[in-house]
C-alpha cells in the first residue's frame, strides 16, 4: 500500500553517529557496557528521540525500554528493536542499528502522515550482550518469561555488581511489569557481524534461525609454587590446565567442522606473576552450533577432556553455566516476508542462519519473528572497526519499513 515510501538514510546515519558519541573510545568504537553510566546516557538519548517522535515511552522492571506508536485500532503491537549496550570494544552498529532504524521508520511514517492499523513499538532491551552480566539477551529473556525477574536482578557481573543495584543506580528500573507480553509479531534489523553477505555480494540476509549458544565459566584451582624450583612432575598448574583447555576448544571446533565454533574469550590467572605457578585460573568457553545435537556432543567432549586433565594435573574444577540456549528457528512466513520485501525493493537477498545471539531469538518464543541482516565490512564485529556502509544501512531500514508496514496493516 505504501510501496514507494522510503526511509531517510542520512537521518539514520546521523542518529547512529550521535548515539556512538556516548561511550566513544579514543581511536573509534564504543564502550557502553550494560547498566553502566554510558548505558544510562545512551538510554536518555534514545528516550529523548522517542519523545520527539511522539512515542509513548515505557520502561519495565528489567529496564527494557519501549516506545509505542498507536495504530488506528487497539491491540497487540507489531514490535521492532534490539539493544544499545555494547561489548567493551564495540562498534556503532551492533544492536544500535535495530533500535535507531525502528525510530527512523517511525519518523518516516510521521512525515508521511501514516497511521498504521496496528500499533507499532520500538524496543531497546537491557543487556543483550551478556559481556558484563550473563546470560546474554537477559532483558528480552525476562520480557518473554524465560527467566524470573528476581533471578535476573540478583545476577552479578564480571565486576561483582548486581543487576538490580545497577538498574537503580542508573535510574533504569521502570514501573511496567515484565512477562507475558502480547506482541503481534517481531522483526529485528541487525548487522550480520560475519563475512557471509559481503563474500556473497548480497545486500540483505533473511535470517532463518539463530545458532545454539553454550557459555561455561571454569575455575581451576591448583597449587602456587616457585617457577624455578618446582620440578614439572610436582606441579598442579591451573594456568597450564586452562591453556590446554583453550587449545582443546580450538581443536574440537575444527574437528567437528560445519558450523561449530569455540572460543575462550576471557582468562584470568592468579597470582598472575612471571615466576609463580598459577594456583587459580578462571576462564570462559563459548561454544555455538546451528545443530543442537552436535553442540551437545561438543559440550560432552569438552567436559570429558576437563575431567581427565584435572585428574592428571591434580587440580580442582568448578563449572558454572553462564548461558545455554538451543538453536531457534524463525517463523517461515516471517522469513518469507523479509525475503519478498527485499526483492520488491530490488535488493539481492539470501536466507541464512545467525551466528550471533539476538533479542529476536527470545521474542520468537511469544510471537512470529524474523530478522533482517545487512553486511558487515570484512565480517568484523565486537571490534571498534565494525562498519556497515550507509547504502546497506539504508537498504536494511527500507526492508524493515516495508516488513513493518505489511505486518501492521
Ligand atoms: C551476543 O551478542 C553474542 O552473540 O555474543
Ligand atoms: Mn547485537
Ligand atoms: Mn553483540
Structural class: alpha+beta
Which regions have little confidence, pLDDT < 50, spanning 5+ residues? none
Characterize the biggest β-sheet: 9 strands, mixed
Helix content: 25-40%
What sequence of helices (H) and strands (E) makes up the elements? HHEEEHEHHHEHEEEHEEEEHEEHEHEH
Count of separate DSSP helical elements: 12
Query: What is the CA-based Rg, rounded?
Result: 22 Å
Arithmetic mean of pLDDT? 98
- The general outline is elongated
Report, as a whole number of angstroms, the end-to-end distance: 9 Å
Q: What hetero molecules are bound to the protein chains?
A: glyoxylic acid, manganese (II) ion
Strand composition percent: 15-25%
SS elements, strand count = 16
